[in-house]
User: What shape does this take?
Amino acid sequence: MLYPLGAGVFLSLMYLVLIGVVFFFHTVPEPVRRVVEAAVLVALFASFHVFPPLSLSAIPALFFVLLYPVYLGWKHRIFMDFIHVVLWLAISTALSAALYTPLPKTLWGQVLAAISSTLAAHYILLKIYPRLKRR
Assistant: This one.
């Protein structure tokens, strides 16, 4: 019973963190709706014991958690185009690898490196990408 519930809470928190990272320098659109979507994720995962075939929805839920924040950023013009998204992922991966190397190999070290590198990459691209696109 606790495993699906814990997975649902983890995914919903990850979803809210990704929304927060994408919209860190902007206003989150419809924040109440984002919290309700996170609560639905928790309820979905908690219901796996009640109705086991619902567990087939775990993979689509994971894709929702990972891709919907990027889609919202694109829809609300935070990401200007597909190259902007790819550059954001590439720069944040490189920064995360550089930041994670000297940190202790623990979960909090990974989380700290991931969040700080994605925010740094996001800020860098928000400042330089419009200039690069004009050229």
